[in-house]
Amino acid sequence: MKIAVIGGGAAGLTAAGSAKGAKPIIFEHTDKIGKKIYITGKGRCNFTNVCDSQTFLQNVVTNAPFLRSALSCFTPDDAVALLNANGCKTKVERGRRAFPRSDKASDVTKALHRYAESNGAEIRLYHDIKEIVPNNGGFTVKYIGGEESFDRVIMCTGGMSYPVTGSDGSAFALIKKLGHTVVSPSPSLVELYTQEDLSAAEGLTLKNVTLRADGIKPVFGDMMITDNGISGPIALTLSAYAARRACPYRVHMDLKPAMTVGELDDRLLRDFGLVLNKQVKNALDALLPKAFIPFVLKTWGVQSSRQVNSVTKNERRSLAELIKSFALTIVGNAGFDHAVVTSGGVDVKQVNPKTMESRLVRGLYFAGEVLDVDALTGGYNFHIALATGYAAGTFAAKEQGQNI
Ligand SMILES: Cc1cc2nc3c(=O)[nH]c(=O)nc-3n(C[C@H](O)[C@H](O)[C@H](O)COP(=O)(O)OP(=O)(O)OC[C@H]3O[C@@H](n4cnc5c(N)ncnc54)[C@H](O)[C@@H]3O)c2cc1C
Description:
This protein is of the alpha+beta class. It has helices at residues 10-18, 35-39, 53-58, 64-73, 76-85, 105-118, 171-177, 233-241, 261-274, 293-300, 313-324, 380-396, and strands spanning 2-6, 23-27, 48-49, 60-62, 90-93, 97-100, 122-124, 129-135, 138-143, 146-150, 152-155, 182-188, 192-194, 205-213, 216-225, 229-231, 249-254, 326-333, 341-346, 364-366, 374-375. It has a 6-stranded antiparallel barrel.
């Protein structure tokens, strides 16, 4: 059985390694395999999350049910075992995040490379696949300067994030030509740009705050103010849930989620009582980070030079309401060049969730970020590439008729 694996990332290497008994050839259009792996997890590669399947699925943002079968056949423990068996020792850190013990993403690449090679995979670099033509139950795979025939093709061409790594989305055109629907790709896990200019507080981390947007579960944790807007854990999470939302849209930040508006009003009353003769701009230091106070005061609308003892009950209440629901308008994001992952891709309704085989073209398979699946940070996205790669490789190598 001749199998073409298009794309030499985590999904492609895993698919090639698990296509047992076949002769996989990996076609990769850049100069190296696993280019994205090197920058994954800030160069440390958080390759999986050793949680139970329910927790894993809760961290999948798009099309979690589609992944159920692949994740049960290739669990986080299987990912750890695969790397260990191929010479990469591993460790688990806070939040059950698994890393190579060396803290070097290159060790993950080496292990996946070894796994693919142990199955006799051949790697062809600088091969940009331009067209895939189904014929007589097989495929002609065309690249610049040549073409070759295969029994099966596994598309592991990734999404569109960090295109410098080779995941430039160019393969979506040939996937569409094969009759597949591609759900419009959008950047996810990405810095969000705000209409409000927050740059004076650039670098500030707001700890233990909540972000809310209509139709999205509130997210609680830390957030960072950037030159152009907001980033950090909860802003990235929000960017994933809102990846397909048209801009502009409003989000509301609760700077004191542990208190109700009434409790916060009481707290303000107590705090103000201690500084009655000060200006309001000097009365909030105990409650809010210094760098963020000017934004709150500007939106509150009470002159920052006014004396605290002149603040009315209604004004104080409106300040409490503002701190509990500080509005920001999201007008865009940092784009694919800076997005950790792509939301969108091959419509999973057209793919068999057990085998990863196309429901439209027999013998064509998909794995990894090319699919319309994406998850939050924590090792989930990389694991999805491994698990779907494993399923696609395993089933593509089976004889016709076994894979449905
Ligand atoms: C900065 C950053 C940090 C990340 N950190 C984490 C993390 O810590 N944990 C985590 O779980 N996930 C992380 N991710 C996401 C994770 O790395 C990816 O989801 C995963 O690597 C995707 O693997 P893949 O094999 O599906 O796709 P890719 O790695 O994108 O591989 C696709 C390959 O296909 C090749 N290709 C594309 N088109 C063609 C063509 N026409 N012909 C030939 N070859 C082609 C590309 O060159 C590329 O090598 C991170 C991503 C980024 C960008």
